């Protein structure tokens, strides 16, 4: 299986090159040369599979055995999911007769990004070790320097995915004092020598600007071989397709005949895009439901066919980041701060991949033409802050998706409602956006439809929204009812963090220079001692 860029189409990359490159040099995102179909007897053969077995079965359809053998893949997958706390990895929890939640938060940082980042870290390490094993003793080993900015979520999942990995250093910038205490503790209590937390005096946007500047600095980038861990990395999408299959089999055991409808709290469109791939591969499901918060660029697209940064705005929205160094949050105005912060985005970086498929199918299945169309659309978004797609493209998008926008008030109501139901469930605010959208959509569903809402975070991670929603529920006690043991211990643990006094790219460069040579020495020392 080869991969090509949504804006190029000529150059084809191996899976390894695709994963190590992240974003294509032309600004596009990598997609597979074709979407594989499922093997003939998959329904029978796969029905008793564990998450790990399904992962090997699905991933090997996208990775040539010459690149990673099935046995190697099995080892990587087993290692990646050994860090999860639940035997099902992503368990399906029944809420009502017609509603399930697919809990994706049983990984090390209690949010769904762990599912993909645990695997990505092991893939990076596997590729680098293999490349270095082929080198002679005189040649310099290849290393990867991962740099990212975070307001909390992606940073901690990336750190837990890359901690203690050979040949990789990771630098995560966060705005000092502006990250929730739990998320700050999650990041800074990881004391593995290759993990470097930079607390920057400034805002999240300052951190993001620094990361962008580092990626744009060709000399610095080449010297340190900067790597990105953001959600545009193909391996992240691929890893996430697996739980759609697991949910399908687990739901089928409990339901005789029912159409499944997946509802996905959406920001950068990575999680739901994985569902789209599963659907295209042949997993039976109805339309996918895109649930957005008040940052509703996607909900507006499905209403109007316009992909536009600010609702009815003046088109002055600044350009999207070219390198995608962090998860798509923009350094410009227009992003609303909501109770579901991991979905606060201005544009959805992975949406370009869906646009490619829409362009391809409306262009008579011509790859070159589809790439040219997508390139044109994305340039328009960059230049004008908006683009409008032809009606036939919108109609095609509506075949596979429905979109709903959920306000903060609805989010709080939904958390309350599910807590006060006969079988109380505490949903985190992102999951609540999904649960609320599911309800709105269910009003139009035939009775044969069962909904599976993807639950993207543990409620204790977003204590503010949860305590706000349940403030009047006298029997609710945050610490007693939902705070996991792991979080209690976390706040008391030793921390390691590097203070950066000003949001200045030169200061950050100096930190990276210093610690990267130290990290390299450690590697050399461990080699010498072997
Ligand atoms: C990242 C994230 C999302 C959004 O997922 P996308 O793949 O960006 O659409 C939703 N909820 C939580 C808790 C997240 O961390």
Automatic annotation (TrEMBL):
The modification N6-(pyridoxal phosphate)lysine is found at residue 113. Pathway: Amino-acid biosynthesis; L-threonine biosynthesis; L-threonine from L-aspartate: step 5/5. It is an enzyme of class 4 (lyase). InterPro entries: Ser/Thr_deHydtase_PyrdxlP-BS, Thr_synth_N, Thr_synth_N_sf, Thr_synthase-like, Threonine_Synthase, TrpB-like_PALP, TrpB-like_PALP_sf. PANTHER family: THREONINE SYNTHASE FAMILY MEMBER, THREONINE SYNTHASE-LIKE 2. Keywords: Amino-acid biosynthesis, Lyase, Pyridoxal phosphate, Threonine biosynthesis. Belongs to the threonine synthase family. GO terms for molecular function: pyridoxal phosphate binding; threonine synthase activity. It comes from Gloeophyllum trabeum (strain ATCC 11539 / FP-39264 / Madison 617) (Brown rot fungus). This is threonine synthase. Its cofactor is pyridoxal 5'-phosphate. Its EC number is 4.2.3.1. Residues 2-81 form the Threonine synthase N-terminal domain. CDD domains: Thr-synth_2 (cd01560). PROSITE patterns: DEHYDRATASE_SER_THR (PS00165). GO terms for biological process: threonine biosynthetic process. SUPFAM superfamilies: Tryptophan synthase beta subunit-like PLP-dependent enzymes (SSF53686). Residues 90-316 form the Tryptophan synthase beta chain-like PALP domain.
């Amino acid at each position: 299986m080869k991969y090509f860029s949504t804006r190029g189409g000529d150059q084809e990359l191996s899976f390894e090159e695709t994963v190590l490159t992240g974003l294509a040099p032309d600004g596009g995102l990598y997609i597979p040369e074709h979407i594989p179909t499922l093997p003939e007897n998959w329904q029978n053969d796969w029905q008793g599979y564990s998450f790990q077995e399904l992962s090997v079965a699905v991933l090997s359809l996208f990775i040539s055995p010459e690149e990673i053998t099935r046995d190697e893949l099995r080892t990587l997958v087993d290692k990646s999911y050994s860090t999860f706390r639940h035997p099902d990895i992503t368990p399906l929890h029944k809420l009502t007769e017609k509603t399930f939640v697919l809990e994706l938060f049983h990984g090390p940082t209690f949010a769904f990004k762990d599912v993909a980042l645990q695997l990505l870290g092991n893939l990076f390490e596997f590729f680098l070790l293999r490349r270095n094993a082929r080198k002679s003793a005189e040649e310099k080993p290849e290393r990867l320097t991962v740099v990212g900015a975070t307001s909390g979520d992606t940073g901690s999942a990336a750190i837990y995915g890359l901690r203690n990995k050979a040949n990789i250093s990771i630098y995560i910038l966060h705005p000092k004092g502006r990250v929730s205490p739990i998320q700050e503790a999650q990041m800074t209590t990881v004391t593995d020598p290759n993990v470097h937390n930079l607390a920057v005096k400034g805002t999240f946007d300052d951190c993001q600007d620094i990361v962008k500047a580092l990626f744009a600095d060709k000399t610095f980038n080449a010297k340190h071989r900067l790597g990105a861990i953001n959600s545009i990395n193909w391996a992240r999408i691929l890893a996430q397709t697996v739980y759609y299959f697991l949910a399908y089999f687990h739901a089928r055991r409990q339901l005789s005949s029912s159409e499944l409808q997946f509802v996905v709290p959406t920001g950068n469109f990575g999680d739901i895009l994985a569902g789209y791939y599963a659907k295209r591969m042949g997993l039976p499901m109805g339309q996918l439901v895109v649930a957005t918060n008040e940052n509703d660029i996607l909900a507006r697209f499905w209403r109007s066919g316009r992909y536009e940064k600010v609702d009815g705005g003046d088109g002055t929205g600044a350009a999207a980041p070219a390198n995608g160094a962090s998860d798509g949050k923009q350094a410009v105005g227009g992003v609303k701060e909501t109770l579901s912060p991991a979905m606060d985005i201005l544009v959805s970086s992975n949406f370009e991949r869906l646009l490619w498929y829409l362009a391809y199918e409306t262009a008579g299945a011509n790859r070159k033409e589809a790439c040219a169309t997508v390139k044109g659309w994305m340039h328009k978004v960059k230049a004008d802050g908006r683009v409008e797609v032809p009606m036939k493209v919108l109609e095609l998008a509506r075949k596979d998706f429905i979109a709903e926008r959920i306000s903060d008030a609805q989010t709080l109501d939904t958390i309350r409602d599910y807590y006060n139901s006969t079988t109380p469930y505490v949903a985190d605010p992102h999951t609540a956006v999904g649960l609320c959208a599911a309800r709105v959509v269910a009003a139009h569903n035939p009775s044969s439809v069962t909904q599976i809402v993807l639950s993207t975070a543990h409620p204790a991670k977003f204590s503010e929204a949860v305590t706000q929603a349940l403030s009047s529920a006298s029997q609710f006690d945050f610490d007693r009812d939902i705070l996991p043991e792991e979080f209690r211990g976390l706040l008391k643990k030793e921390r390691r963090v590097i203070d950066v006094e000003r949001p200045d790219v030169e200061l950050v460069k100096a930190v990276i220079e210093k610690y990267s040579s130290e990290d390299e020495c450690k590697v050399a020392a461990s080699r010498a001692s072997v």
